[in-house]
Amino acid sequence: MEDNFQSAYQEEQERLNTALAEIDRQLETLRNTPVYTGNDYTEQILEDSREQRRGNLAKLRQEPYFGRLDFAESGDGVRRELYIGKIGVDREQVSDRPLVIDWRAPVASLFYSFTGGTEATSYESPEGLIEGLVYLKRNVVIRKRILERVADTYDREGDGPAVSDEFLVYRLGENKDNRLRDIVSTIQEEQDRIIRAAKNTALIIQGVAGSGKTTVALHRLAFLLYQYKEQVSAERMIIFAPNRMFLDYISDVLPELGVGNIQQSTFADWAAGILGLELPQQSVMETLNRWFEAPGGMPEITDETSERFKGGTKLIGIIEDAVRRLESGSVPGGDFTPWEGAVLPRRTILRWHNEEYAPYPPAKRKERVMARIHRWIEMELKKSPSAAALKDRKKKGAQREKAYGAKWPKYDPLAIYKQIFRAVKTPADWPAEAPEALPAAVLKETRSQLKKGVVLEEDLPPLLYIHYLLNGDEGVQKFDHIVIDEAQDFSPFQIAVLDLYVRGHSFTILGDLSQGIHAYKGVHDWKEMQSLFAPEHTSYHALTRSYRSTMEIIDFANGILSAGVHSELLAVPVFRSGSPVRLIPYGEQRESDLRAALANLSGRDYRTVAVLTRTLADAAHLYENLSEHFDDIHLIDGGMTEYQGGLSVLPLYLSKGLEFDAVIVADADLDSYGETAWDAKLLYVGCTRALHELWLMHNGRLPDYLRQASETAETASGWPDVSGEPDSK
Ligand SMILES: Nc1ncnc2c1ncn2[C@@H]1O[C@H](COP(=O)(O)OP(=O)(O)OP(=O)(O)O)[C@@H](O)[C@H]1O
């Protein structure tokens, strides 16, 4: 075994030497090629491509590839060694194999989809299905040109028929810093299928916590850019994430994959940008406060809860009705008379509006009709009998044209939205009462909020829809693809609106219903989203394996899911064992116990440790105390734009999407968490943030689901033994 390993290592070292020498040579040649600065277009294109290759080779000379796959096609049966890296490189001499194959290339898919066995396997290539035998799947870790590790995960001539998880487990055992990383060397088969799925479908992915949803979405973008080079561009792709700090947390993955310029935004920022509204961050924080900081837990949610109603599709009908109503009475009454003696009959204007410009949306129609009127005035002016008359008519005409334009309805989304909620005077031909379909509570709340001039996050989808109905998509650059992360917190209305801004329903929608802690606005069942698309335009996938946490943590989190969330979407752990989950009752002093817990965990080899509290107010209070004792400690609130890693104190609901080497859940007891499924979801989110260590601190009165979880999973009670010996339940 040792000999095999030695020879594999030696073989890879030799191959690495050859590959590095060739990459260095190619880079040298390119660097010696004078940079073209002239105006010849073809030369400029060639220079761009040389510049890109210079950049790629400079990266590759540090870490040229990460995997090797030996594959023999059924046709000629010749075993070929294929080296797979983040970027493909051709050889200097033309050959049947590139020096490095891009991980996104069709043949590289075998590296991920092959799950073992001795049977022939196949992959889809542009020439059709290619069959053959896999002989070897090998992971090769190269850092800064040094070969650090060689691990075979499958060897046809070796002992086992299956692909081993050993290398994956080694990778998962590493500590994390303040950024999410790429996983190209260990993408798993179920993830690969999503990454490589065809572009023009709304993919809906339910994935348990830690199943790699965010990571997979980012890799999928890199894949789509490679596979559909001619059809998509990075600038026309967008990823929506829950907050700006999360965007910062994921911001390294795409550049690591050699992909730049993909737009990244929160829905609120993007929508406010299109609407030209200044949506204060304040309003996002207010929503969080209302739901998460309320004393006594989350307020009750019904279909008439404002966020939920405004996120549902019932409002669509009300909006369409209002816009139609406005439009039908839009052409002002009476003929248009720019000066005495010149008359443009209303029936002519109506013909332009209702017939000639009928295909345009209302705001564009108005624009066109007004432009036509302007041209008509200019023609009429030519008939002026004298220069003095011309001057007089010009002045009058301009004034009356302006006045006539002002008589049209104001095609402003916010103005119309206010009219729907009767927060301003409505047009004369509208009923005095607001539409019956608007629930009384939503009407009252929204009316008073709009009267104060406040626009909330929940108002953005309806406002955008009105904007779209008024202006259509003329002049709008549609997206080639949209990724929505944490999609369980998106409403169906948000998705319906986004569908208007993307070509070919090209979506990757990822989320986890068990983490649906924003139930007041999000979906409760993926069918709510699926039903927005024709069946042939959507497909559903489930990711059930969880990669983030140790088996002990996953078992414990599964216990919360079964007993508290009553969900069957349990996670399947990768076989990575660690310390038991620890439940620690507070002694005399809560804060000094939390301090001691943090001191213990941060004293180890971990890079990120978090204390999760029930509310932001708790987090702020605790932070004040802890910051006197710890240097590199940060308080995370909803307005943060950057995630710094190290030690963090944050309310549990803001930890969604993030991960930490070790997590301390403060106050995991009935004083802070009730027995409801929502409380259980909150704790599920918190517990699944931990990679290696999870400690729950409490006052002895645990919610029932936590008690049950602690009985079914491997847990330890109390402080760790100073001797480091494993301790009992
Ligand atoms: N195939 C893989 N190889 C190595 N690491 C992986 C793999 N898949 C996921 N991971 C790791 O698992 C962790 C969780 O990934 P990610 O945050 O993308 O999951 P998620 O499903 O979005 O999680 P959550 O919903 O809980 O926020 C990350 O550290 C990621 O690097």
UniProtKB/TrEMBL annotation:
Residues annotated for ATP binding in this entry: G207, V208, A209, G210, S211, G212, K213, T214
UniProt-listed Enzyme Commission number(s): 3.6.4.12
One GO MF term attached to the UniProt entry: DNA helicase activity
Keyword flag Nucleus: no
Domain UvrD-like helicase ATP-binding as annotated: residue spans: 186-550
Protein keywords: ATP-binding, Coiled coil, Helicase, Hydrolase, Nucleotide-binding
Claim: Nucleotide-binding is one of the keywords in the record: yes
Domain of life: Bacteria
Coiled coil: 6-33
Protein name: DNA helicase-2/ATP-dependent DNA helicase PcrA
